[in-house]
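Backbone-to-sequence.
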């Protein structure tokens, strides 16, 4: 059986502190005063302070950190072995990609490898869109709109033809 969770804050913010809260505050104060005392809240507060204003490292501490980092063993891979493994992986991935492409191609075709010719609308001249002569000034937007509408209609018809939509 689980115990019900108590709210993080008392219902009355001006209520006096409980004994538990006083003990927790004293533990935090002690941990903030002495870095050797472990406390989760104090560790977070120290990390925030150091992130905002990091303290300078002395020479000995810096040298110890660098030496510890250089002592970490590194993994050495022989070039021939790595190249051979890379070759096998590349060949396997290439074969897998080729098989996937063939599968997608065969699934996209309605009759296996037979191709179907779909009659599409061809690009046409805009002369059939305009019967009246152009005005010397103005009307460009109207003409562009008429051309764009005709091209959009052709595109829509071509897409529907490719999708076999009547």
């Amino acid at each position: 059986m689980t115990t019900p969770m108590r709210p993080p804050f008392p219902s009355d913010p001006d209520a006096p502190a409980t004994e538990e809260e006083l003990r927790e505050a004293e533990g935090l104060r002690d941990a903030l005063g002495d870095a050797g005392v472990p406390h989760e809240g104090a560790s977070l507060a120290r990390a925030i302070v150091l992130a905002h204003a990091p303290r300078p490292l002395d020479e000995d501490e810096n040298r110890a950190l660098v030496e510890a980092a250089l002592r970490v063993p590194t993994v050495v891979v022989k070039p021939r072995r790595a190249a051979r493994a890379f070759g096998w992986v590349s060949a396997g991935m290439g074969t897998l990609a080729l098989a996937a492409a063939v599968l997608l191609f065969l699934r996209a075709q309605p009759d296996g490898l037979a191709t179907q010719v779909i009659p599409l609308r061809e690009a046409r001249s805009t002369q059939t869109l305009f019967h009246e002569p152009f005005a010397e000034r103005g009307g460009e937007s109207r003409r562009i709109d008429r051309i764009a509408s005709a091209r959009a209609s052709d595109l829509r018809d071509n897409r529907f033809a490719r999708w076999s939509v009547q």
